[in-house]
Structure formats: structure tokens, C-alpha cells
Design brief:
Its main location: cytoplasm. Keywords: Cytoplasm, GTP-binding, Magnesium, Metal-binding, Molybdenum cofactor biosynthesis, Nucleotide-binding, Nucleotidyltransferase, Transferase. It is a single chain. The protein is an alpha/beta fold. It has a single domain, classed as Alpha-Beta Complex (Spore Coat Polysaccharide Biosynthesis Protein SpsA, Chain A), CATH 3.90.550.10. It is 31% helix and 19% strand. It contains six helices and ten strands. Strands 1, 4, 5, 6, 7, 8, 9 and 10 form an eight-stranded mixed β-sheet that branches. Strands 2-3 form a two-stranded antiparallel sheet. The longest helix is centred in the C-terminal third of the chain and has 19 residues.
């Protein structure tokens, strides 16, 4: 199966965290840089979906500018689907810039699960995570009718085109929306480091895996 075009959704204003969310740092690394590093696990063909061209400086990643007539993350998905079609990619995989613990197997598992559906959406328990989903490029043709219905949610669009849900644990889709969320993400990273320190062969003088 061909690798997808990966589009990082980073056009939100991030008002609850004081603005400029993609540029906020987690352990000295910008959220957007962490997202790019994660996205490269699944494809070398990346795009950055923004509301304005200069929102995120300092990245060597092509920028897609969202349609201002579409509100919310659906605008980023529209940009992703158009870019996938233009790049002759069968799929667009979207991920938000503010979900720092995405599972490394996200892309492969969604591709393995999509079958003949138009979308594959991660789920954890009762929660769906449609901003982290795999979409067939042909779903672009379904977007005008959905917009004409007056609906704007990603979950609603996934339901309209038909999707398969793929289960993961919920903690992997924790997203950073506020200062307290950022602090919680820092605590999670601290906990991961402590867990590594407790493994055999990871003490002083030994290299971690």
C-alpha cells in the first residue's frame, strides 16, 4: 500500500493556552516540531495546514492555507484532501499539532484497517479522534454536500462518508489545550523517563534503548 500524504493540522488559534499553540514547548521542543518528527514515521511527504501562511515559522515543510469559508478543523481536512489529490496520493493522514503522544503505529494500523471504507478513525473507549484519521483522497468529492448540509464537525463528516473505528488506549490521544494540559504532558514525560531509569541496563554508565 502506498504511503499517505501526512498533513499536520496547526491552524487553530489556541486561545485557551494564550495563542500560538504550535510554538509552545514541551521539554524544550515546540509542539509543531514534535508533530513533524512523529509524522515522518509514516511518510516523507508532509504538509502543514494553517489558517495564515506565517503562523508557524522555522519549518521546512510545505504549507497549505485553509479555506477561510470553512470553520474549524474541517478546513484543514479539506486542504489535506486537495493536497493528496494534487500529489496523486490515495490517502491523507491528518494529525493535530497538539497531540504529543500519538502511537507510533498509528499510520500502519489505520491503513491496515481501512479496507473499502473512505475513512479510518482512531477510538479509545467511547471517544473518537477524527483529527488523527486516515482519509481516502476521494472523500474530497463528498465535502461540498456535507458543507451544504450546514454541518462542520469531523465526526459528522466521517459518519457521512462511512468509516471504520480502530481501537487504542485513550492516553495516546491526550491533547494540549491549556497551560494545565501542558503541565500534565510534562509530568507524563517525566514518568516515562523514570520508567526507563528502572529498566535493566539503563542506569548510570549504560545506554538506554
Amino acid at each position: 500500500m502506498r504511503v499517505p500524504l501526512v498533513v499536520i493540522l496547526a491552524g487553530g488559534e489556541g486561545r485557551r493556552i494564550g495563542g500560538g499553540k504550535p510554538l509552545r514547548e514541551l521539554r524544550g521542543e515546540r509542539l509543531i516540531d514534535r508533530a513533524v518528527r512523529t509524522a515522518r514515521l509514516w511518510s516523507g511527504d508532509l504538509r502543514l495546514a494553517l489558517r495564515e501562511p506565517g503562523q508557524v515559522p522555522g519549518l521546512d515543510v510545505p504549507v497549505l492555507v485553509d479555506d477561510h469559508n470553512i470553520a474549524g478543523p474541517l478546513a484543514g481536512l479539506g486542504s489535506a484532501l486537495r493536497a493528496a489529490r494534487e500529489a496523486n496520493r490515495d490517502f491523507a493522514l491528518t494529525i493535530p499539532c497538539d497531540v504529543p503522544f500519538l502511537p507510533p503505529d498509528l499510520g500502519p494500523r489505520l491503513q491496515a484497517a481501512i479496507g473499502n471504507r473512505l475513512a479510518a478513525v482512531p477510538a479509545s473507549g467511547a471517544d473518537l479522534h477524527p483529527a488523527c484519521a486516515l482519509w481516502r483522497a476521494e472523500t474530497l468529492d463528498c465535502l461540498p454536500a456535507y458543507l451544504a448540509s450546514g454541518r462542520r464537525s469531523l465526526i459528522g463528516f466521517a459518519e457521512a462518508v462511512g468509516f471504520v473505528r480502530v481501537e487504542w488506549s485513550g492516553g495516546q490521544f491526550f491533547n494540549v489545550n491549556s497551560e494545565s494540559d501542558l503541565a500534565e504532558a510534562e509530568r507524563r514525560l517525566d514518568s516515562e523517563i523514570e520508567d526507563l531509569d528502572g529498566l535493566p541496563g539503563t542506569g548510570p554508565g549504560n545506554s538506554r534503548p
